[in-house]
Amino acid sequence: MTRHHYLAASLSALVLTGCVNMAPEYERPVAPVPAELPVADPSQEGASTLTWQQVVQSEELQELIALSLEQNRDLRTVAATVEVARANLITARSGLWPSFNGSGNAQIGDTFDDSSAYSSTFSDSTSAQIGVSAWELDFFGRIRNTNDSALQTYLASVEGERAAKISLVASVAEAWLQLGADKELLRLAQQTAESQKESLELTQALFDAGTASEIDLRRASASVASAQAQAATFEANVRRDINTLRYLVGTDLPPAIEASVALSPSPVQLNLPVGQSSSVLLRRPDVIQAERTLLAANANIGAARAAYFPSVSLSGGVGVAGGDISDLFEGDYASGWTFTPSVSIPIFDFGARQGNLDAARANADAAIATYEGAIQQAFREVANALAVSETISRRLDALEQLAEDTSVTLNLSQERFKSGLDDYLTVLDAQRENYDAQQQLIQANLDHGLNSLALYRALAVWKEPAGSTPSE
């Protein structure tokens, strides 16, 4: 075996043997929540199996959400952080391999001798080298753990982007529903104001005829002013909702889409989640992100532990030299090589390594708490949404009946007032009851849609297009 072959074999043996991982063995923390979700009917299809296009029924809202995924500035910021993490991962991985550097040199010279009539000496030289600069042999896993930490940080950022997309989809749909509800409330207030004006005109005529009191007239006038004030409030709310949608979408709303915003029929529909195990919460992007952060913190402990042990680095190179550049290609050259191993042994650093290790352990403890907190929050969000789901249908049925009954009562009271059988106070009471019932029904329809989105937000898993999922 030649010296070169022996050196290569020795180097390979060093790299392939003796590599120790100083990171603690990872164990996923036990989820601090009940083992089962409070699901009414586990046989139904759930949020975790649906895409947002299946949850959102309105084509106009689907178009608006797709536009927001392209234009929203907050989402662009999150995407940029993913690219930063990707670049940091590439940098970390480069430490696993030696870096090669090449150099070349050429020199031409001529020397004149003044002591003679004419004398000169011409010389030239050419050399080329390639070398390895300080490649650290990762015996104790410092570089590998640093690389693992960068990988988990990158994957955590990917999950963070997915969570941001789910949140954006839900936020746009929520803003759409709120705009639709406020438009209905504005329409109701305007209709009520017009009805109150008609009642005021009737009361004025009855007052002029002497069959209605001034109290009735003042009450009718006050009811008109109250309805107009509420209409102005809801008009401001509609404008505010439009501004919110513009911000979320990241651009002006297409006029046709803005005009199509409505609360009924419901633009979103979602069944109860599938399965009874709370382990479905582990598929949430924010929970996965928290676990990736925990894995990164675990790897950082390994890197901090490895700093207590010696580090071995290799450097070396090979080179050739000749008279002129053509000699390098014709074989008329001299060759040489160098090999320089070095060992760095930590002795005393005034507690720097211990401080780094303590910080890494504390970060891991914080990551565990964050992970467990993310699971607890996920369980709370799902449980709250399911609690509303179990009662919202009964609430809607009751409010629809209430709105119908108060509408009939209002018509009867108006007829009795015209006939002189009741005073205007009875009419005002009937109007107020009907108006309140209509408002409650609109709010219940809004809550129904918002609760469907809450279930989607709590359980959805973002499905990336084929081929776009990052690999480890």
Automatic annotation (TrEMBL):
<comment type="similarity">
    <text>Belongs to the outer membrane factor (OMF) (TC 1.B.17) family.</text>
</comment>
<dbReference type="Pfam" id="PF02321">
    <property type="entry name" value="OEP"/>
</dbReference>
<keyword id="KW-0472">Membrane</keyword>
<protein>
    <recommendedName>
        <fullName>Transporter</fullName>
    </recommendedName>
</protein>
<dbReference type="GO" id="GO:0015562">
    <property type="term" value="F:efflux transmembrane transporter activity"/>
</dbReference>
<keyword id="KW-0564">Palmitate</keyword>
<keyword id="KW-0449">Lipoprotein</keyword>
<dbReference type="InterPro" id="IPR003423">
    <property type="entry name" value="OMP_efflux"/>
</dbReference>
<dbReference type="InterPro" id="IPR010131">
    <property type="entry name" value="MdtP/NodT-like"/>
</dbReference>
<keyword id="KW-1134">Transmembrane beta strand</keyword>
<keyword id="KW-0812">Transmembrane</keyword>
<dbReference type="GO" id="GO:0005886">
    <property type="term" value="C:plasma membrane"/>
</dbReference>
